[in-house]
Automatic annotation (TrEMBL):
UniProt record similarity statement: Belongs to the sulfotransferase 1 family.
Gene3D superfamilies in UniProt: P-loop containing nucleotide triphosphate hydrolases
InterPro entries assigned to the protein according to its UniProt record, in alphabetical order: P-loop_NTPase, Sulfotransferase_dom
Name of the featured protein: Sulfotransferase domain-containing protein
Top-level taxon of origin: Eukaryota
Taxonomic path: Eukaryota, Sar, Stramenopiles, Ochrophyta, Bacillariophyta
Keywords: Transferase
A Pfam family reported for this protein in Swiss-Prot or TrEMBL: Sulfotransfer_1
Length: 133
């Protein structure tokens, strides 16, 4: 991560070099097949993707989205990924990304900055950004 000071200002402008400009990357424990499915998955125009750097509030944002879409209709699952699949990891967890979800809109998680299918589908994207200190 690069950090740049602005003319003596205490606050830093933080950015991750090359984020979204490199080939599609996933964590090493994700299988090649799950990666392939994540790369080629096509979103619907009504889908929502929670998009973030790891450890910047992704799960918290997903839980807020879940409460909104189910009208706080219960939290009877162990992990938010059960309700909102992680695009790059779903196949390895036995999830079919094309399935409908408990309530509309379908919500997904991703740590990929730019995906052509997001742009093509005009999908709603919630970017989670946290100022690092």
């Amino acid at each position: 991560m690069e950090s740049t000071k602005k003319e003596g200002n205490i606050s830093d402008v933080n950015r991750w070099p090359n984020w979204g400009t490199k080939p599609y990357k996933v964590m090493p424990h994700i299988s090649p097949e799950s990666k392939r499915i994540g790369e080629t998955f096509r979103l619907r125009p009504t889908d929502v993707v929670v998009l973030s750097f790891p450890k910047t509030g992704t799960t918290w944002t997903q839980n807020c989205c879940e409460q909104l879409r189910t009208r706080a209709g219960g939290y009877d699952f162990d992990d938010i990924t059960i309700r909102q699949p992680w695009i790059e990891f779903a196949h390895d967890l036995g999830q079919d990304l094309d399935n409908d979800q408990i309530a509309p809109p379908r919500i997904f998680k991703s740590h990929q900055l730019y995906r052509l299918s997001i742009q093509e589908a005009n999908t709603c994207v919630l970017f989670v950004i946290q100022k690092l200190r």
